[in-house]
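Give me the fold.
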Amino acid sequence: MKIYLGSITFLVGMIFAKTTHSQSPTLPETPPKKIETPKKWFERISLRGYTQIRYNRLLETNSKLKCEQCDRSWGENGGFFIRRGRLIFSGDVSDRLYIYVQPDFASNVSGTFQHSFQVRDAYFDLALDSKKEFRFRVGQSKVPYGFENMQSSQNRLALDRADAINSPVANERDLGVFFYWANAAIRERFAYLVRSGLKGSGDYGVLGVGVYNGQTANRVELNNNSHFVARLTYPLMLKNGQIIEASVQGYTGKYTIEKGSANKGTQTLFDDRRAAATLVVYPQPFGFQAEYNIGQGPEFDPTTMQTRLQNLRGGYAQTMYRYKSTNHTLTPFVKYQYYHGGKKQELDARRYIVKDWEIGIEWQLRDYFELTTLYTISDRTFEDSANPNNHQKGNLLRLQAQFNF
């Protein structure tokens, strides 16, 4: 009897244990630890760009009025025009190395052939510290001179840069080595001024110094002298959130001009030096922007029919108002510019006297499309040995559609 009861007890225990085991939840297995594979350098590269398409012939009063440096589609024989077609390849390929390559598919090789491929930027930033506060920039890039020169055309309100500030460095770029410094907080502020749509200039440091060829981008160096540049800028944030940026900059070097056959001068190598001051009050919602520079450089003299070293001066002032809604941003603006001096990169260092008014409005649809309408009232003298008596006045309505991608 004891054996019988013991067997029953054992059997019941086995059944109970089996039932209990079958009803217990199965514990998940511990997942294997995921091993992150470092990204290859090409996986860190981003691609973006923008395209600008213009038409400048509406309400035109003088087809002889032109602007070679700012927009070659001004005046007679001008039509629809692709002003810029940019693709930008950029990224941090390592902890200390950043690359930036920007070709343009809308460059003009000659007066009759356009929309060719040309390198605008091709540079490498080598950081000296982990926060990237100290860095060297090597390659073809923007020369740190002038706020409007540093500001991308993708962000600028006016369709073209002012003659006075842009004439020192055509296309704003040259080949050289530049050193930039800004602490991490100010670098983030520079990024915010672009990211927020406040039309910032980008991060070119609080301090920027450099040495570069001096003949401007994509041109062969024609002398044995380098140019030297220095710029100091600071975006000050007030207690109410308003940001004001002030800058001083200057450069010096020697430049070799292209001389026309009718130019009676024998000199082609000239001193080339300037200094400029900048003040920017970012549009929150009202804004103001002004720059002025003085210096010396080559300039054609129509009375002697030769290019001489002469003083130059000029700048611009611009007011704007920014209205932002959920999907739209409207920014009306008024700009006046004045310049009296030569343009060294043009034939004979062409002589200019510029007095222009620009009244415009930019409409931005989210972040992918912008339409700018601009009415220009222009008074320009531009003279060289081929055309030593050339004073043109006129008005025109200009349109630009910009696509960001």
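The mean pLDDT is 92.
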